[in-house]
Structures are given as structure tokens and as C-alpha cells.
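Reviewer 2 asked us to include a model.

Predict the structure of this chain.
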Amino acid sequence: MKTTVVIADALLEEAKEHARNEGTTLRALIEEGLRVILAKPGSGKSGYTLPDFSFQGNGLQQHLEGADWETIKTFAREERL
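Predicted model (C-alpha cells):
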């Protein structure tokens, strides 16, 4: 597949020189770099982990158990006022 990638001029020149010194192509060098990065643990294959922004409390209040989302949102807004 063909694609266009914007790379800083200095980095591109360094990569081209490295490829020449290694006797390989720029394409092969880029593909190898991508494979190395994608093979690392946590390289995106596990998905996004939501930060824990929880706060102290005991979970859902008993009187809201079984309530629909609109009721819970209304209660939460009223508690802040």
C-alpha cells in the first residue's frame, strides 16, 4: 500500500543515510521500525486504559439502585446545587 508521511527533513536524511549504510531501503527501514514499535507490550493492542478518577464514597446510594440514568443524573445535579 502506498501512503504519504510527513517527516522532518533532518530525520529523513539521517534515515536515508542509515539505510544506505545498512545496505537496505528506506521502505524496509521504516517497516522494521514500525514492527519493533508495534511488537512492544502496551503498543495499543491492549486498548486505552481509563485513568482512575474515582473519589471517596461507598458506590451507588441505595435509594438510586435500579433507577434509570436520567434519575441518577438529575439527583447528581441537584446534589451540587
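Residues 1-45 form one domain. The chain has a mean pLDDT of 85. We have added this to the supplementary material.
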